[in-house]
Design brief:
The chain is mostly helical. It has a domain of 26 residues. It has 2 helices and no strands. It is rod-shaped, with a radius of gyration of 22 Å.
């Protein structure tokens, strides 16, 4: 088996790190969306007039 080139290792590790970072960002976006929805629902429950115009 031939050793893996430095260039391939660099590229592979960079892609792996980037995919991990994107996964973390995706999770943060999902959490922010859920929090925004919860806030909207809570506000709508407190003032139904606002919910009708939104």
């Amino acid at each position: 088996m031939e050793p893996i080139s430095k260039e391939y290792l660099l590229l592979f590790n960079t892609i792996t790190d980037t995919l991990e970072a994107l996964g973390q960002l995706r999770q943060r976006l999902l959490e922010a969306q859920q929090q925004a929805e919860a806030l909207y629902i809570a506000d709508a429950a407190q003032s139904p007039e606002t919910a009708r115009t939104a």
